[in-house]
User: Fold this.
Amino acid sequence: MSKKIQIAVVGSGYVGLVAAVCFAEMGHDVICVDNDERKVAALQGGDTLIHETFLPELLNRYRNAKVRFMTDLAEATRECEAIFIAVGTPQSETGDADLSYVEAVACEIARSLTSYKVIVEKSTVPVYTNEWIRRAIERNGVAREMFDVVSNPEFLREGTAVSDFLHPDRIVVGADSERAAAVLAEIYAPLTGGEYYTRPDHITGICNQNEPPVLLNTSTKSAEIIKHASNAFLAMKISFINAVSNLCEATDANVEQVARGMGLDSRIGPKFLRPGIGYGGSCFPKDVAAFRSVAEQMGIDFGLLTEVEKINVQQKKRFLSKVRSALWTLRGKRIAVLGLAFKGETDDIRESPAIDLVGMLLGEGCSVVAYDPAAMKRTEEKLPASSQLRYATDAYTAAHDADALLILTDWDEFATLDLDRLYTTLRYPIVLDGRNLYDPQVMLRHGFTYVSVGRPSTFPVREYAGSSVL
Ligand code: UGA
Assistant:
């Protein structure tokens, strides 16, 4: 039977909130601290704040019992053995991560520290942050033997955050002290020992009792670099396949076939080889920039990452050119947009390539009618409805009388549209698919002009007065 640990999680954003409910699901007692009183009140009242599978169920199960929400970090520090810092590390103007929230939390913890604590950095941070946290705490008069700082990066994805947390590919614990490493090992024991997966009500996923996740012990600096390097590598994989997709377009090859052929090589692997309109979200763009900046500060030229970013920016512009080629001119055209979130199954629009493209279309003088199953409220706060931009209640309303339909987010529901209905709803049956959700031959059979990424476009042959016109 694993030991129950008192855990504080500071920050109730994606990582903090998911970690808090998952630690409770693993059997621990958790206090989730946030300095935003409205957020705390909302969470206490049962609001999940973010759109995430399994989160409502887990919050319902543990809210105000095994997970308590509060604003008082001093109280949480006194009560808990391990304090996880999961606050934001936004991008500063120079591309570096802004660590002021992490520093503020470290100082506040220091002021309330009366017995030994393990302070765990879970936010994505540059190498050396653990050392800075340690120094900040010591500067506040805390003796070295009263605490340890550990790096335990999180690799969850939005949309599948809960199952990613409970079924991780690996758990990385960067600790320079055995005492602290032992506390982290105890916290994750329900997963690494397989006990959690034997529970009848456990959330299922890739791990099980016989194949529990691996816990990798490293130095704090290695753990910090593992997180940045992993995100940068995944972003590089996406930019790589996007660059390959451009080559496929130039040569009439099919990038889906190329990606499959590459991915079957076990050294490459099939994941993160989906071409599209570029990566977005709150992590990859920020982390690639931060990692490049860290390297620069250490005197390392990591120009590869500059190329990764360049390809990502170009990919959006390239998609806009495709819209232009399909419609000839853009001013005054009515465009239906499906998808605003940075990827499917989330309501997050941060750094969303879909939002960037909507901005570009509006800039070109198009009128846009957009639909997204979850992200419209957030988008409307950023881009209010106007005579040029409207929000529709479903995909077909968005498509009504449009000159073309653009698919910009890979929501499952956009992959199963009623194509006959769509055909009669659009003014012109033109679909530009930035996520390759459809088979071009199927679209052709349904009479669409279909343009996607890295695959030959298909155009129905129409008969006009005996001559065929492409
Ligand atoms: C990413 C990482 O995948 C997580 O491991 C990490 O923990 C997280 O960042 C973080 O650092 O917090 P996330 O931002 O939720 O997770 O989203 P991803 O599923 O990785 O997708 C990122 C972007 O890449 C999306 O815009 C997605 O559409 C795009 N993408 C992804 C592609 O264009 N092609 C692909 O093959 C995969």
About this structure: The first helix runs from residue 14 to 25. Residues 228-470 form a domain with the Rossmann fold fold (CATH 3.40.50.720).
